[in-house]
Amino acid sequence: MGTKKYKPEEVVAEPRQVDVLVSQGQSVADAIRAIGVTEVTYDRWRKEFGGLKSDQVRRMKELETESQRLRKAIADLTPDTLILQEAGRGNV
What domain of life is recorded for the organism (predicted)? Predict the structure, then answer.
């Protein structure tokens, strides 16, 4: 079964929808099933994005992507730098 990619707006709105359904008298488990995600996903969203607005979540995701890109660039450059340092020491 394929996984669905949720947009930041959905990640923020879905837990709020659960809150509305619970306030209307549904159990938490039934409300989570009604929005179409698993309890694990709901708990993860609550823990990671609880209290954030959709633009804050979008910005956080952009920063995480940029951070991964920079880490990869550093990892690619580190061996080259070490080789050049060793070569420089060998000539002295």
Answer: Bacteria
